[in-house]
Amino acid sequence: MSESARFTVTRSLSKEQQARRERLVAAARDLADEGGYHAVTMHDVADRAGVARATVYRYFATKDHLLTEVAAAWAHRMTHDIEAVAVGGTPVERLTALLERIVVVAAGELTLTSTIIQAVTSDDPSVDDARTVLFLFVRDRLAAAIGDPVPEREDVEIVLGHVLLAALVSLTSLRRPVDEVRAMVRTAGRLVLAGAFAGVAEAGPIAP
Question: What is the DSSP string of 110-140?
Answer without folding.
Answer: HHHHHHHHHHHT---GGGHHHHHHHHHHHHH
